[in-house]
């Protein structure tokens, strides 16, 4: 538990080229500008690189990162710590029923884990989610709303939420519930997880087409010094 102390923290898992803000025309959800999204990301206590693109970009910029940290692995590795310390975990996000299915899977492995509440990610008013999380007296919230919705949610409600840690984890609950399969190990090892997701979800092509632009932007920035 040395890597963070309990405090009011927001964390984000950055999946690089699909959610990046290095591409000029990228306006997430059409609701915030890339500069605003950058500010939101930079306000997080910790941002982890969940994408081969971020790792590659950092390498090009000569500020290498040790490795990709997949959100789902991070979330799963945190569970035994939450179980041991008796912290209360709230699962927010994904389609109706998914958070409950993920909770069941978590409890099979960690029977003493305290999951104090669940809620799907298709709520109309943020205030409803805030109220339920506070009523559940959660210490930690896995915020699985996809980018940039989850980052905006965490940023906007830092003051309203009486929690100690919020982590933006994209499709992690789908992965834990088993409704979305992760790439086979050999693909993860070869950093081809993005290709697996593209094959499974071709609608992601638009997002992934930004990869070459992102790499080019990194090269340009490196050349500028
Ligand atoms: N989602 C949600 N509410 C929304 C939009 C999306 O809860 O309004 C969920 C969606 O069901 C999925 C997750 O957010 O479980 C996004 O998953 P994805 O793998 O696309 O995450 P990303 O790649 O953005 O991290």
Structure description:
- The longest helix has 15 residues, at 71-85.
- A six-stranded parallel sheet has the order 2-1-6-5-3-4, sandwiched between helices.
- Residues 1-8 and 16-30 have low confidence and may be disordered.
- It has 225 residues and is an alpha/beta fold.
- Helix 2 (52-60) packs parallel to helix 11 (210-224).
- It has helices at 34-42, 52-60, 71-85, 98-109, 126-135, 149-156, 172-177, 185-189, 193-200, 205-208, 210-224; strands at residues 9-14, 46-49, 88-93, 114-119, 140-144, 165-168.
- Strand 3, helix 4 and strand 4 (114-119) form a beta-alpha-beta unit.
- Uridine-5'-diphosphate binds next to loops.
- The site of uridine-5'-diphosphate (UDP) has 14 residues, from loops.
Descriptors:
disordered N terminus, binds uridine-5'-diphosphate, 14% strand, globular, alpha/beta, 225 residues, six-stranded parallel beta sheet, 11 helices, 45% helix
How would you briefly describe this protein structure?
The chain has 225 residues and is of the alpha/beta class. Helices cover 45% and strands 14% of the residues.
Q: Which structural class fits the helix and strand makeup? A: alpha/beta
Question: What letter string, H or E per element, gives the SSE order?
Answer: EHEHHEHEHEHEHHHHH
- Spans of 5+ residues with little confidence (pLDDT < 50)? 1-8, 16-30
- Quick one: how many beta strands? 6
Bound chemical compounds: uridine-5'-diphosphate
Question: How big a fraction of the residues is strand?
Answer: 5-15%
Q: How many helices does DSSP assign?
A: 11
Helix content, binned percent: 40-55%
Q: Estimate the mean pLDDT confidence.
A: 84
- Main sheet? 6 strands, parallel
* Coarse morphology: globular
Using only C-alpha atoms, the radius of gyration works out to 17 Å
CA(first)-CA(last) distance: 37 Å
Strand order of the largest sheet: 2-1-6-5-3-4
Give the quaternary arrangement of the chains. single chain
């Amino acid at each position: 538990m040395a890597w963070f102390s309990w405090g009011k923290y927001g964390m984000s898992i950055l999946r690089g080229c699909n959610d990046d803000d290095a591409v000029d025309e990228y306006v997430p959800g059409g609701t915030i500008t890339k500069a605003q999204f950058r500010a939101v990301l930079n306000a997080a206590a910790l941002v982890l690189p969940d994408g081969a693109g971020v790792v590659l970009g950092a390498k090009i910029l000569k500020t290498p990162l040790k490795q990709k940290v997949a959100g789902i692995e991070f979330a799963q590795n945190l569970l035994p710590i939450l179980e041991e310390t008796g912290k209360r975990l709230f699962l927010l996000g994904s389609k109706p029923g998914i958070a409950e299915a993920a909770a069941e899977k978590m409890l099979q492995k960690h029977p003493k884990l305290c999951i104090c509440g669940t809620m799907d990610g298709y709520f109309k008013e943020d205030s409803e989610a805030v109220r339920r999380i506070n009523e559940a007296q959660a210490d930690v919230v896995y915020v699985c709303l996809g980018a940039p919705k989850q980052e905006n949610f965490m940023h906007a409600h830092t003051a309203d939420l009486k929690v100690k840690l919020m982590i933006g984890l994209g499709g992690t609950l789908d992965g834990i519930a088993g409704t979305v399969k992760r790439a086979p190990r050999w693909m993860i090892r070869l950093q081809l997880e993005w290709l697996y997701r593209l094959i499974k979800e071709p609608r992601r092509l638009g997002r992934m087409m930004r990869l070459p632009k992102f790499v080019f932007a990194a090269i340009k920035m490196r050349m500028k010094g």
